Amino acid sequence: MTSSDIPTCRWGIITTGLISSWFVGDLVMPRTDAKANHIIQAIGSSSLGKSKDFAEKLLKDTEAKPALYGSYEEVYQDPNVDCIYIGSPHGFHKRDCLNAIAAGKNVLCEKAFTLNAKEAKEVFAAAKAKGVYIAEAMWLRHRPLVADLRKLLYKDKAIGNVFRTTSDFQMYLDIAGLPSTSRYKDVSLGAGSLLDIGIYPLTWAILTLEADAPAQREMPTIKAAQSFVDGIEVTTTILLHHPSTDRQAIVTSSTERAYGATPASSNTIATIDGTDGFVEVEGHVPSHPRSFTVYPKWTGDEKPKGKKYDYQRPQQGFIYEADNTALDLAAGKKESSIMPWSETIRVLEIMDEVRRQGGTKYPVD
Questions:
Q1: Which part of the chain is the Gfo/Idh/MocA-like oxidoreductase N-terminal domain (predicted)?
Q2: What phi-psi label fits residue 125: left (phi over 0), alpha (psi between -120 and 50 degrees) or beta?
Q3: Are 35 and 331 in contact (CB under 8 A)?
Q4: Which residue, of 151, 208, 235, 268, is most buried by count of CB atoms within 10 Å of its CB?
Q5: Please, what is the average pLDDT of the chain?
Q6: Coil, strand or helix at 56
Q7: CA-CA distance, 244 to 182, in Å (whole number)?
Q8: Percentage, residues of the chain above pLDDT 90
Q9: CA 190 to CA 114: how far, in whole Å?
């Protein structure tokens, strides 16, 4: 397939932080399996200097040079931009999404999509009224690893009937030592482990315990607890139970402890138990899976031997959501079938309930 046979998406990038650098870095990396052509058409930051530095670092070897702006609004108004990628902190997502939508732009917005389900509904209503595409950039859901794992679990029944998933995300932040100006200490911006990293183990639970398409998925029952430092949630533990299947999940997140793995090594980031075996998903952290191993039922003293499925590649994994967005736009869709609006709202409703039980309240609630 030649480049002329696949759709092209011209991206406008909002913010020049770490997550945006990962997204852009993936899109400009050479590939042999491209499903779409991606052009970084425009970059917007809080200053022109930041946009120039970003482009110099990541795009100096690209043939097409992006338009560089010292504001977000200039990107929204650029007629050559097909879709806006929003990489700002989640406390600003509602604002940035609504501004892009008002300009008539399609949007791919980082997770967590907004601070709560109420905000997400407002954004989706605006997108529907304007007739533009918008989707939450939960890149984990777009990975081939996830599709293959779900096939093994629910079509091939590789481990029998799934009954439990556990997943944990840890990273260390010295909350007590951070300045009050840090976004990690600002509840109005969604500070805490849940929306920042807890959404990933929650997503592993959803992806591995729910066989149905998003539109048919039920709301699990939820039990949750949270702990705090200086009024900021630092540890969340969630128990999920799906009444129709009796499947359960233990989902945890914490900013009180770092992982032991280096970026080049792997932890077990999720475990899925079934009646005839189990699966361990490996990666640096739950947002960066690299492989999974399928094991037979563990009945003896020693861990049985398993079959490993490896998905390591040069890109980090943002390319899959970018490809699917480009394909959606080419097909005239207004939302993603992988992460439809209803699923974004449901996940936020789960996290809203976790925060209600745990004691985290945002001003926008």
A1: 10-134
A2: alpha
A3: no
A4: 208
A5: 95
A6: helix
A7: 42
A8: 89
A9: 9
- Domain 8-140+318-338 top-level CATH class: alpha beta
Window from 209-213, 269-273, 337-341 with minimum mean pLDDT: 209-213
Q: What are the C-alpha distances in Å from 52 to residues 56, 195, 245?
A: 6, 30, 53
With b for 16 or more beta-carbon neighbours within 10 A and e for fewer, the 281-298 pattern comes to: bbbbbbbbbbebbbbeee
At the topology level, CATH places domain 144-310 in Dihydrodipicolinate Reductase; domain 2 (3.30.360)
Q: Show Cβ contacts of residue 55 under 8 Å, excluding neighbours closer than 6 positions.
A: 43, 65, 66, 68
List, in order, residues 6 or more apart from 361 with CB less than 8 Å away: 187, 355
Residues 6+ apart with CB under 8 A from 343: 214, 217
Which band of pLDDT confidence, cut at 50, 70 and 90, is reported for residue 61?
Answer: confident
Domain ranges for the chain, please list them.
8-140+318-338, 144-310
- What ranges in the chain are assigned the alpha helix state H? 18-27, 48-58, 73-76, 93-102, 117-130, 144-154, 193, 199-209, 318-330, 341-358
